[in-house]
Amino acid sequence: MTLTLAPSGRTRGAGPAGRHDGAVRHHLTLRHLASYAHLLPAVATIALLAAPVAPGNVSTSGKVTPADAASAVLVLACAVRLLRDRRRLLSPAAAIVLGAPVVGFAVAAIASPDPGAGVTGFVRYAQVFVLVPAALVLLLRDRRDFAVVAGAVVALALVQGGIGVWQYATATGASYQGEDIRAVGTFGPSDIMGMATVVAYGLVISVGYALAPGRRAVRTGAAACAALLLVPLTVSFSRGTWIATALALAAMTLLAGWRQAVRVFAVLAACAVLLVGGVGVGSQLITQRLASITQVTDAPDQSVTDRYTLWSAALSMWREHPATGVGLKRFPDERDSHASLALDSGSDTAGAGQTFTREPLLSPHNMYLLALSEQGLIGCGLLTGSWAALLTGGAARLHRARRAFRARGAFHARTAIAPGLAAVGLLLWQAVDFLYADIGGPSTPLTAVLLGLTAWWSLNSTDEPAR
Which of the 8 DSSP states describes residue 140? Predict the structure, then answer.
């Protein structure tokens, strides 16, 4: 029997004993992978968002996407797991925070003059804001589970971002100012915000892991991912996403420490100059798009005018039905009776493999005003109150983790900071983005998954080391 030298310096048999060692390692590897099997529905929900979406196949049209179906399997798998393992459900505090919006959804559905739309809206809202987040809270066991799901989001962002950059470079994207250069990924021009949202999610997660103390390889890889994702975010030409991302990243950088914040802000300023100055033909378009952010009141373009008009229509609906709103999924039906003549009822879309179409404006593009108009003060208050509780709890837990790291430098406190920064950053990003966007479109299931990640961090009060 020949002998080989093991990495530890001991001799290891290449005969039966060596085969036994290999079998043991193989068994341990399979067992290790099997320990993450409960996350497959969540990872599948994320992965299916990389599939191309047919024109019109969005949630607002009543069709179910593969990611929607996977999110339903995620909720079902969580229920089966709870029944099989006889695990306890959510803590009372978590049940109140996550379950409170259901009351508002139910009241708005019951008060709606269209029962069919009320039921459909109730199911959709419960899926996005309650069921999928609660399933993630129950399925995630520790920070390694969090990292697996968050890593899947970053991988999806890199895929969609890579497709978007290719569209920009080859002029095969969505139409923007007469050129097919707008990066939209596989979502197409009918969901112009889809790729930008996915890329922003991945960027926020990457920055969270890059800023937090931890292994050098992890921080370097996360920083590289963040740098790569800045490019597709830039060529998405999405002003709302730019604003939300800038504010979230600035807050995360400050939460990570003042000294580090100075260095990071200097590097980001240099990178911004290089990106805007180095993209070639599109640099002028990007500069104009950035400048238009400050012109939303002085000389707004038609898209901004439409948004202001839709916001006014939503407020008008709420004033007529202040307590319960006009009913779930009722904004499109009530829009024309409350909007002024300044509204252009559709937006022009073309490019990215699709012909010219007019996409109807079926929402106010503001989640807070959408909830206020369709659910009234009751539903909007409960929904936003739930988000505020998650943000407060997440920030408080992050503060405890940073304080423990400064006091003891414990490894588990150090590793807790990364998911904490990512979770708080994601919730901040979503809170700002909802000022310019709302749910709807193929990327909506990913919003539900991200809310689940932030809810797990906020509602899980234990700080034990990961497995």
Answer: -
User: Could you tell me which of 263, 254, 265 has the C-alpha nearest to residue 399?
Assistant: 254
Which residues have C-beta within 8 Å of that of residue 184, sequence separation ≥ 6?
164, 167, 173, 174, 191, 192, 194, 195, 236, 352
Per residue in 388-432, pLDDT tens? Answer: 999 999 999 998 888 877 776 655 555 678 999 999 999 999 999
How far apart are alpha carbons 37 and 41 in whole angstroms?
A: 9
**The two three-digit tokens of residue 457, written as one number:** 């961090």
What are the domain boundaries of the chain?
Answer: 85-299+361-459
Separation CA 234–CA 161 (nearest Å)? 10
Picking from 334, 409, 424, the residue whose alpha carbon sits closest to that of residue 370 is: 334
Query: In whole angstroms, what is the distance from residue 158 CA to residue 54 CA?
Result: 21
- Rounded to two decimals, the pTM is 0.87
Characterize the bridge pairing of strands 11-13 and 174-176.
Answer: unpaired
- Pairwise CA distance, residues 385 & 381, whole Å: 6
Coil, helix or strand at residue 211: helix
Contacts of 298 (CB under 8 A, 6+ apart): none
Give ∠ CA 380-385-389 in degrees, rounded to 5. Answer: 160
| 36 three-class SS | coil
- Is the pLDDT higher at 281 or at 277? 277
CB-CB neighbours of 123 under 10 Å: 14
Q: Tell me how far the alpha carbon of residue 368 is from its chain's centroid.
A: 17
Tokens 């996407």 sit at which residue?
Answer: 65
Per DSSP (E only), the strands in 212-260 are none
Average pLDDT score over the chain: 82
Residues 6+ apart with CB under 8 A from 439: 59, 124, 128, 367, 447
Tokens found for residue 418: 């990364």
Cβ atoms of 108 and 119 within 8 Å: the answer is no
CA distance 294 to 290: 8
Render the burial of 355-390: b for 16+ CB within 10 Å, e for the rest. Answer: eeeebebbbbbbbbbbbbbbbbbbbbbbbbebbebb
Residue pLDDT, tens place only, 226-279: 999 999 998 988 888 999 999 999 999 988 887 778 877 787 677 666 655 555
- The label of the residue with tokens 């999806």 reads 156
Which pair of tokens denotes residue 9? 């310096």
Say if residues 128 and 442 touch (Cβ distance below 8 Å): no
346-351 vs 179-182, strand pairing mode: unpaired
